[in-house]
Write a structure and sequence with these properties.
Blueprint (H helix, E strand, L loop, with lengths): L32 E5 L6 E5 L7 E2 L7 E6 L5 E9 L1 E8 L6 E2 L7 E6 L5 E6 L2 E6 L6 E4 L2 E6 L6 E5 L4
Antiparallel strand pairs: 1-2, 2-3, 4-5, 5-6, 6-7, 8-9, 9-10, 10-11, 12-13
The structure holds calcium ion (CA) (2 copies).
The site of one calcium ion (CA) has 8 residues, from loops.
Length: 166
């Protein structure tokens, strides 16, 4: 008489639920647009939603505020303002609070651009290319005769229009 042997099958194998892994470091997306306008009588920096709603004047003074630049994480805005006579670089929080002056050269400083790590700001002062720490320290001239600086994503290089004096 045949004997039946019961095969024991392994009880259900537990499959670990895979933990989703981020493919890259997420960059905060604030979904806001910075722009400048003279609609209130002089140059001001505004922020609005991408659909044009909730337009807020962040500077709101009687001097010219322009050339806004987001830090990569969206928490800070660098900009140029002539509120102290000539153009200087300022930094403010994303809601317009905490406005502080970073530069004080005799001429106009303009075109501020954040380094990718938020530690430095490139700008043009008197037609020369400068880099300054975002806390206002260690301003250094990098090149005589330059415009329109932009950082490479690696933060180690800056591209700009060279216009050296003749
Ligand atoms: Ca203004
Ligand atoms: Ca200045």
């Amino acid at each position: 008489m045949p004997t039946t042997t019961e095969r024991s099958t392994p009880s259900s194998t537990r499959v670990a639920t895979p933990t989703p892994k981020p493919t890259s470091t997420p960059v905060p997306m604030r979904g806001k647009i910075l722009f400048t306008s003279t609609r209130d009588g002089n140059w001001e920096i505004y922020v609005m939603n991408p659909d044009g709603t909730i337009q807020t004047n962040l500077t709101n003074n009687s001097h010219n505020d322009s050339m806004p630049s987001w830090s990569l994480d969206g928490s800070k805005i660098a900009f140029a303002s002539d509120r102290h006579g000539d153009g200087d670089i300022f930094v403010m929080d994303e809601d317009g609070s905490g406005q502080s002056r970073l530069t004080n050269l005799g001429g106009d400083e303009e075109y501020p651009r954040w380094s990718p790590d938020g530690e430095r700001i490139a700008s043009i002062g008197g037609n020369d290319l400068y880099v300054i720490n975002s806390d206002g320290t260690e301003m250094r001239q990098l090149f005589q005769g330059g415009r329109n600086p932009e950082w490479f994503p690696d933060g180690n290089r800056i591209v700009f229009n060279a216009n050296p004096p003749v």
